[in-house]
Amino acid sequence: MSSLKKSKARAQRKVFRVRRKQLSRGVKPRVSVSRSLQHIYAQVIDDAGHATMASFSSAHLTQAKGTKKEIAKQVGLELGKLMVAKKIEEVFFDRGGYLYHGRIQALADGLREAGVKF
Fold first, then answer.
1. CB atoms within 10 A of CB 114
2. 84 in helix, strand or coil?
3. Are 109 and 76 in contact (CB under 8 A)?
4. Rounded (10°) CA dihedral 59, 103, 17, 84
5. Quick one: pLDDT at residue 24?
6. Whether the Cβ atoms of residue 99 and residue 33 lie closer than 8 Å to each other
7. Does position 32 have pLDDT exceeding 90, yes or no?
8. Rounded average pLDDT over 62-66
């Protein structure tokens, strides 16, 4: 097995390990987070219905100013507003294999400020 395949398989195991710990799958929706070098993306997924309920990304921000962490917090706030408008108040936070610090933590803090519970 090539080193690229090994690293992709290792990353996939990490994602599944994080997602497996969410015991009540189907009861609460999950907030899935993905990031690239320039943008951060978050979406609310209903695993029981296999549907995306809401999504937001830094590409949708029109007045995006500041550091990447500040922009991630703005994305969390905006997604939180969408979720509160759709009456989604409690979710699982799926960090997607990323460490819980930096932009991922800032997005989670923005969601909490908007009134969403983890």
1. 16
2. helix
3. yes
4. -60
5. 56
6. no
7. yes
8. 87
